[in-house]
Amino acid sequence: MTIQVYNVLTRKKEPFVPLVEGKVNMYVCGPTVYDDSHIGHAKTYISFDVISRYLRFRGYDVLYVQNITDVGHMLDTGEDRILRRARQLSALPMQVVETYTRGYFEDMDALNVRRPDISPRASGHVPEQIAMVEELLEKGYAYEVDGSVYFDVTSFPEYGKLSGRRLEEQEEGSREAVRTEKRHPADFALWKKADPDHILRWASPWGVGFPGWHVECSAMAAKYLGQTFDIHGGGIDNIFPHNECEIAQSEAAHDEPFARYWLLAGTLTLDGVKMSKSLGNTLTLKEALQRWRPEAIRTFILSSHYSNPIDFSDAAVEAAYKGWLRIWGAVTLVREQIKNAPEGSESEEVRALIDQTRKLFIERMDDDFNAPAALAVLQDFTRKVNSLINDSPPLTQGSLEAIDQTFRELGGDVLGIIPDQLDQKGDMSREDGLVRILIGLRADARERKDWQTADQIRQKLTDLGITLEDRPDGTIWKAE
Q: What is the C-alpha to C-alpha distance for residues 24 and 362, in angstroms, rounded to an integer?
């Protein structure tokens, strides 16, 4: 079955056919590193992590490029985000960049987001950006004004084809400098003249200055993936103007299509409200990871389709955590039983269950990377595995190993929520330790024939959603 994707550019679901058979070139707009990563970054980058993981699972050779914006991302006031943050911290701009770039990758590592194959920085590719601006000037798509260079949107008739916004609908800029320098209010900066006190500055044919935000992605995507590549990803918030400008300048410069498939992740709100520092309702990933296991956050993100909006709340993450605990409980039970299970190959019943699970999982993921539906398949597999384990006779080593491999492959390699083993400092290990202490106390009570205490311990655990199961080789627990 061919993978089907919803292409934002064509506004329809269509078969995914890469330019080169068996190979996928993918570019995803990365973070602007001027502050700590927040939970919205988790929504975007977990989504594309799963997409890249699944493409590899399906046998594609994936080259995944995700940029780091460390210069040129301008605020509405015309101020560079990096420079403003550097002033706030009384630090050098590159100190800011290094601090938050490292923090970003630490957060992504914690969430089991695999690192891109290439993470190019805008500041390290200024020559490529200058070369693209020169090409646009030469072809008549750009113009220079007093050391700054702007893209002339009226010269590119297809401007707006991704977002659907018409040129005549664009509002005039709010600053006088924008109105007087630009020929059209929607024209965007390719290169900006640097004021004398502007720290981030490079020499160019138009004088000392710095690149605009949009040109970096076009220049770096072309350098590493070619002028036309397969997938462009990012957040829906950047569809206009950033993604729109990328298309215009790239296709104008190269006379070739830019990205063939546009996959954009939906927005994330916090308790129903868009995150904003001015509202004081931002949640950094470091704060979130102090409160919840990374698997809980990841499962929560995957409970919604990547293209849909999602609302982050304590209750929603707790619900996702309980769902993940049910899966992890089955995984740990299977892995524990392998050690003492009777020898033998996998049974026909287990093979049929695994084959059906893999078939349904692939069908769901082939349908525009539908992670919530794939997660539901894994949850159903978990329920059936628990039933098989509770039946007699006990499962053979071959059956249990095949089940474990299925969890590792679908839940681990693709969805990224089943680790080989949990961090011993994690909450789950503490929970397991505490439950086992209570199981030990209950066993002591039963040995003393103190049935009342033993029953109270069982009931208290049941009230917390933890079920005990007494077996000849000991008592096990499962989260319901």
A: 18
